[in-house]
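Handoff note, outgoing to incoming analyst
You'll be picking up this chain. Sequence as last confirmed:
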Amino acid sequence: MSRCKIDKNPISPKACEAINELKKQDSPGCQAISDEATTNQLVQCFNELKGIDLSRHKNFPTAWQNVSKVRNILRRDSVPLKRQVPFRSNIPKDVNCLEASLGIVIEFYSNKSLAMAELEKISGKESGKFSGTWQAFSNLVKRGFNIKSIGQFDHARFGREGYDYVEKIAGATVAQNWRDNVDLAREQKRAKKAAQVIDMQLRQPTMEDIKKMVDGNKMGIAYVNSLALGGRSGYVGHFVVIVDYNDEKKEVTIHNPGLPPKPYQVVSYKNFQKAWYSPNPAMASLIILEPRDTKDKK
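Most recent structure output, in case you need it:
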């Protein structure tokens, strides 16, 4: 039996290893954690880590991966969830939230962790640009996935009309963000092809869609405004993975690749929907992915 405890309650060997990993972090509060840790000690440790720029850590991204692993394990041990979902972090350049989200989904279904380079091949990633979902759609269908896209954004129309369609449906702020960060001509071509192989439901996604998806043990990626998710103004598009929901507490649990990475991040329905529907509800999307061979599902 594990010697480690939290609030005098025995914890699993993996959680014990996680506690030991925390003690290695560059934080007095973390280093002060004892074998019989308390919740207050853990809270103090994680609060201190929020103020440390781990991107400058000599072992980055290992340092972030270790912290994420600890959060993952401790969260799993302490909070009952309908299912456990593996986690992947964004990379230091902070432009691979889609690839990290795809990695989470693929590993959930297959128990295989793909290297970031392989995930970039799936998404058609090009250096210095944010990834659109369309090449990933096409490649995942080839890999045996069914994909349902719920949202008012019409991928086929974007393929035909490009920037003008984005500005029309989402507004100038989003359109300019895309113009600055996305190769629009390339993504238009990809969108045309992807629209032919996915199930598009042209309507606003809702919490009921999330609940139905989780209850069916399917995986989904939501496109949100990361600044709104963090309670800030402005707009930056961002992909997160839906893990669970709690109707009693009105909360949704997500894997947020970051940066900073936040596995099992709990967000109120109200705040999640604010980020989901910001700056324009027309941009909200829920991408539900499922292997065609359901035997591969957990």
